Amino acid sequence: MSLESIFGNILKAIPARRGRLFEQYYTRTGSDGTERRIGPYYVLTRSVDGKTVSERVRREDAPRVREELARGGDARRPGREALGGGGGHGRDRAR
Description:
By secondary structure, the protein is α+β, with helices and mostly antiparallel strands. The chain has two helices and three strands.
């Protein structure tokens, strides 16, 4: 992999995020006694200094955050492959 293609992949990946986006719902009991599902609410969970940090994401921002998370995962792969590591922790190896 050439240096130009590595930098090209990095530039394509900006902005990028790491973490996971969860879609959550709450159940509420209405005045008539029926349970209602409220949501979705989106929560971004990531690791900062070894600690798990969660933050809410607005519904209209969820698609953009999903794309940034996908780019964040893609951005890590080229560097690891260039260094000879697949990053698959043995899952991709032939048995």
